[in-house]
Amino acid sequence: MEALHSGGRRTGVRRTARGFVASVVGTLLVPALVIAILTVPLSMTPARAVAGWSARRLAWVEGTSRDARPVGGRLIALLAIESLLGLLSACILALIVMGLVVAGQMFVGAAAGTAVSIFDAEPGAVTWPIVAAYALPGAFLLFLAASGLAGIAWIDRQAWTSLARPGVGELTREVSRLHGTLDDVVAAVDAERRRIERDIHDGVQQRVVALSIILARAERAGDAEERRELSQRARNETQHVLDDLRAVAWRTYPAMLVRDGLPAALEALCGRTETPIRLRLDMPHLNDRAAEAAAYFVISEAVTNVIKHADASRIDIDVTQRGQHLVLSVRDDGRGGAEPTGPGLSGIASRAAARGGHLHVQSPPGGPTTIEAVIPCG
């Protein structure tokens, strides 16, 4: 129990020390805060950058991450509050420094018998009883100053926590966006079902019909040579049926994606595609199967879209992990002019949006076309 209390005291002292350092850093950030507020009409980038610095400062004090960030008017309000708190911290820190300077001169004057210039005191005028008389009120003022810094740090944390929460309007817009995403996902699922039905009807079903006709002819054939020929054709047709079924299963959900992960599935996709593909992967720390599945289908459908419409001779695929996001890029040298609102690209956008990501398409007439998607990953 005593060890537990000792550990708690050490944690409290460590947090207090970090809070003091954070107050000093917050004071140093005041010029940046003011500049960020003044440049808001031109760009929100400086404001977001300063808010990021402040988030890291608070996270260092608390030992936890500050992932939620205020936006819009709440971001400006936070910067204004932090500017005022920084100025207050600067005033309190200045008073603390002045008090320490006075205390230091008094201690030196009492110990060495020298003059204390801050009081215009002659040598020997400041004695230990005088130092003791000033020590108690000085310690009380130091306690008040430290309490003021602690209060400012508390207000800073509470302001960040309150303003980082989304407002009613933002929540309403997010709910509307999620409803729209849900509708897009349902539409994408229906389109996928229609595609599977079409693949089976136009491919597998036609080959099964052809196989049944060949087998019927083999049953009626009187010549042994003709029966052998028809049997061979039936075996070939059976192999085609199996190949078509494997292709349908692969397009529906490749088993390799679950078994071996995204890199192996993408390499297999490149091997199955007649158009030459250059694949570059940079995701050493990815361990999110849902994100891998979303990334695979975004890339797969983008490649299918290129093959159907772009008349391209080359496709470049880049997959890069940047922090908590997967950045996907599919670029081709085709004819360009792709419409982001078309059924193919809108379906890809729906897939990305279903995982909280977004899609960006650049396709000038004449090409090249670049499809970029950003997908969150754990």
Description of the structure:
The protein has 3 domains: 164 residues, no CATH class; 62 residues; 122 residues, Histidine kinase-like ATPase, C-terminal domain (Heat Shock Protein 90, 2-Layer Sandwich), CATH 3.30.565.10. The chain contains 11 helices and 5 strands; from the N terminus they run αααααααααβαββαββ. It is rod-shaped, with a radius of gyration of 35 Å. It starts with a helix and ends with a strand. Helix 1 packs across helix 5, helix 2 packs antiparallel against helix 3 and helix 4 packs antiparallel against helix 5. Helix content is 70%, strand content 9%. With 378 residues, the chain is of the alpha+beta class. Strands 1-2-3-5-4 form a 5-stranded mixed β-sheet, with helices on one face.
Give the SSE map:
Blueprint: H1 2-28, H2 30-38, H3 45-62, H4 72-112, H5 128-164, H6 168-220, H7 224-252, H8 255-260, H9 262-272, E1 277-282, H10 289-309, E2 315-322, E3 325-332, H11 343-354, E4 358-362, E5 369-376
Pfam family, one: HisKA_3
EC number: 2.7.13.3
Keywords: ATP-binding, Kinase, Membrane, Nucleotide-binding, Phosphoprotein, Transferase, Transmembrane, Transmembrane helix, Two-component regulatory system
